[in-house]
Amino acid sequence: MTGEILIQQPGNSVVTDLGRTRGPRFGLPVNGALDQYSARAANILAGNLDNHPLVEITALDFRMKATTDILIAVTGAPLTLTVGGRPASQWEPVSVRAGESVSLRGIHRGLRAYLAIHGSVEAETLLGSAAPDTVVGFGLQLKEGTTLLTRRSVGPVRQPYFDLPLFRLGLERPSMGSDLLVDVTDGPDVAEFGESGELLFTTEYAVSGRSNHIGLRLGGELPERTTTGEVLSRGVPVGAVEVPSREELLVLHRGRGVTAGYPVLAVVTSTGLDVLAQARPGDKVRFRKTTVAEATAVHRRSRAQLETLRESVNTVFGLLGIGCRPQWQDLPVAACS
Amino acid sequence: MSVLTASPTEIYESGDSAVRVVAISEASEQNWLTVHGLANWLENCGAEGLHGAVPTYDSVLVEFDPLLVSARQVRAFVKLGLLELAHADESAKAPREFDVPVVYGGGYGPDLERVAEHQGISVEEVIRLHIEKTYTVRCLGAPAGSPMMDGPAFPKPVPRLKDPRLSVPAGAVSVAGRQAVIAPAMAPGGWCVIGQTPFSVLNIRREPLVPYKPGDILRFRQIRPEEFSDYAGLELEPLEPGVQP
Q1: CATH 2.40.100.10 domain span(s) along chain A
Q2: What's the Cα-to-Cα distance from B12 to each of A112, A231, A264, B184, rounded to whole Å?
Q3: A179-290: CATH homologous superfamily?
C-alpha cells in the first residue's frame, strides 16, 4: 500500500541517494549523500537497497508525519529522535503509526542526519540519480507542506511490553566530535608543493562557515606551491585538497566542479570524506597520511560491517514479515524457547 | 581508416577511488586524441566497478568503486585501453557542427571593452577574432558540461577577473587565458564575458544534457541585440550536414 509523507518542518533537507556516478563524464558532479556510510546504513536498516532515495537533513530540526504506518531508520549525526512524542533510537529500525509525527531535533557533534523509509519514496532522477544538483537546478529540496509518496506501508512492529526498543542490531557508529582526524593520500601534484606540503600534517585547521557540499574551507597554515604557470584544466577527484588562495585550504567534496586548474596536494580517503561530511563550522581538523592500499582496506572493512548488518536485517525482517510473509512460524519450536 | 598512435602516458594515484592518466608527448593534439580515445574505450569496456572517465586536454581522471576494483586493476585497464587505441577506427566519428548566434558587448558582454583594452585592439577587432575562428570542443567542463575550447587568436592571454562574478547567466560567451567557453547554466565565474547566445544549451530532460561532445565544431556569429528575443526558447542543435547557417 502506498501512502504519503507530509513535511511539517523541513529545516534544511533534501531527497538524495548515493550520487550521480554517471555525472562527471557529462560535466556534472557526483553529488549525493555526503556521509555515504550513514546513508547506506539508514537504507539497510530500513530494509532498502543502499542507493534508494532517502532524506538528508543538514544542521536544522526536521519534522514529518505519514498517512500510513511506516518503518524508518535515522542515522548520521547524534540528535533527539521522537516518534509520536516518544523517544526512539537512532541507528535502529523504528516503527511509526499513521498520523504520528517523526521529529529530529538538536543535531550535535556532527552536521548531517539521514532518514530512510522502508520502501523508499518516489523521486525524479537525472542520469539515474535523485541527488540534487544546484548548478543545473535539479532535485527535491523539502519545504513545509511537501508530500512524498511512500511505496510500501509496514504494520506496527512494537514491543508489547513498555514499548522497549525492539531492535538491537548493534552497528558500529562512526565516532563524531569537534576534533576530526582525516586520512589523506598524496595527491598527483604533491611534488609541486615541495617541503611545504608537510604543513598539511603538522597544522590544526579550523572549519570555515563558508563550507558546503561543494567543498570545505579550512583556515590554518597553508602549504605553498613552489612552481608557477597555468595548469591545464583537469578532472579533479572528490576529496582533492587544493590551495587556491593565500587564505584557506580547500577540500573538495561530492558537489565539486568536475574540472579545475589547481594542483592537487592530497586526496581525502573515502572514509575521510564521511568524517568531513559531519564537520561543523569551527571544528578542528587534522590530516593523517595514509596509502591508497591502506585506505582501500579500511574502506572495505567498513563496507563489510554494513554487509553484516544487511544480513541481520534480512533475518529479522524475514521473521517479522517486513517486506515479505512472516517466517517465524517456520522456525522449529526449540529456536523460540 | 585512421589509426591513432597513442601518446606515452604517466599514471598518478588520485586517492582511493580515482587515478589520473596524463599524456606526455610534445604534440598536444595527439595527447588530446589519446586521452579522449582512452576515455571512450574505458566507458565502453564494460569493466565492473568503473564509474567513468573525465577527459580534458592532456589528462583523463578515471573514477572507480574501490570495493569492486583496486587502483592496481584500474591501471591494468588503462594500459590495455591504450594498447587497444592503436586498433580503434576514429573515422566513424565525424564531428557535428553548431552555429552559435551571439550578441556581443553591452549588458550581454560586460567585459568586452575590458578585453579590448587589455589586448590593445578595438572592440570590433575582438569580435572579429572571436567569430573568425572555428572551435573544436576539447572537453566538457564545470559547470554543467561547459564546452571548453581553445580561444581566439588574441595577441595575449586574457587574465581572469580579479573579483569573480557571483552569477553569470546561462548562455554567457566568455574567454580566459587561451580558452573560450559558453556557460550552459547560471553559475559563479571569473572568466571575461564578451557576449551571450540566446540559445538554451542545457536541457536536463534530455540525455545527453548538452548537445555537443568533445571533437564537435562550434562557430560564433554576431546578431543584433534586437534579434536576441527571436531565438527565445530555442535549443542549440547540430546543423544538418551540408547546410549553411
Answers
A1: 179-290
A2: 33, 16, 11, 31
A3: Cyclophilin-like (2.40.100.10)
